[in-house]
């Protein structure tokens, strides 16, 4: 369906997503496997709780960059006209490959994170305004509730609403499907968190002060 160069781009996007930032930071700088501590998730939140703010910020930035870099491959390997719907659709597919790589990284025994930061990077590269609005919803929810999981759920739930209604001029079908899929992916990967939220046992994250 895609020429050789486009197929190679999918492979590179998957490899980019497969960079297990949290796992490598834990192993090479702290001599631990982040997946054996805290929630067991190889992502920003567990890095924050297990290793601290500085490594967590680094992990988050790299994981976001993976998503941005993956969709930018479209400009290097695509034969589609720049700024066309075809390029946007191709970027979405590259972003999906990167997220799959993050969740199932070949460099970390296919045991990765939930893909939130990388999905955000994909969205940031394709539709910056929507990404920033989702980030605003995330941080407002986090500051008010102290729950990262709830913040992720609400931010992801707002994504298809923003794509479908706030930015009606965007007609790329794959971008809309990506928004819906991202929401359901976040819900599916946060089942345990949702249960803990319902039970009142979910851990809180304090950004600007120590936990009492």
> What does the oligomeric state look like here?
single chain
Main sheet summary:
none
Mean pLDDT: 88
Q: Give the helix level as a range of percent.
A: over 70%
Sequence stretches where pLDDT stays below 50 over 5 or more residues = none
Number of strands: 0
- Could you spell the SSE succession in H and E letters? HHHHHHHHHH
- Radius of gyration based on Cα positions: 17 Å
Q: How widely separated are the two ends?
A: 56 Å
H/I helix tally: 10
Structural class: mainly alpha
Number of domains: 1
How much of the residues is beta strand, in percent? under 5%
Shape: globular
Description:
With 212 residues, the chain is an all-alpha fold. The chain has one domain. Helix content is 70%, strand content 0%. The chain has 10 helices and no strands. α1 runs antiparallel to α4, α6 packs antiparallel against α7 and α7 packs antiparallel against α8. The longest helix is centred in the first third of the chain and has 25 residues. The model has no long low-confidence stretch (mean pLDDT 88).
Summarize the structure.
Helix content is 70%, strand content 0%. It has helices at residues 4-17, 21-30, 44-50, 53-77, 85-103, 116-126, 128-145, 148-166, 173-189, 191-199.
């Amino acid at each position: 369906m895609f020429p050789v160069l486009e197929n190679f781009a999918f492979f590179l996007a998957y490899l980019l997503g497969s960079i297990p930032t949290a796992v490598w930071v834990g192993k090479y700088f702290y001599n631990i496997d982040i997946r054996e501590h805290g929630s067991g998730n190889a992502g920003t939140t567990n890095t924050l709780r297990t290793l601290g703010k500085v490594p967590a910020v680094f992990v988050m930035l790299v994981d976001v960059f993976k998503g941005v870099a993956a969709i930018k491959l479209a400009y290097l390997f695509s034969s589609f006209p720049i700024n066309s719907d075809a390029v946007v659709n191709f970027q979405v597919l590259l972003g999906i490959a990167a997220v799959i790589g993050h969740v199932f990284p070949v460099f970390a025994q296919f045991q990765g994170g939930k893909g939130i930061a990388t999905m955000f990077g994909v969205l940031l590269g394709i539709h910056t305004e929507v990404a920033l609005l989702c980030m605003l919803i995330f941080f407002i929810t986090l500051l008010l509730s102290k729950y990262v999981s709830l913040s992720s759920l609400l931010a992801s739930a707002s994504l298809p609403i923003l794509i479908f209604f706030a930015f009606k001029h965007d007609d790329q079908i794959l971008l809309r499907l990506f928004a819906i899929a991202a929401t359901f992916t976040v819900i599916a990967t946060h089942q345990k968190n949702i249960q803990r939220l319902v039970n009142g046992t979910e851990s809180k994250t304090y950004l600007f002060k120590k936990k009492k």
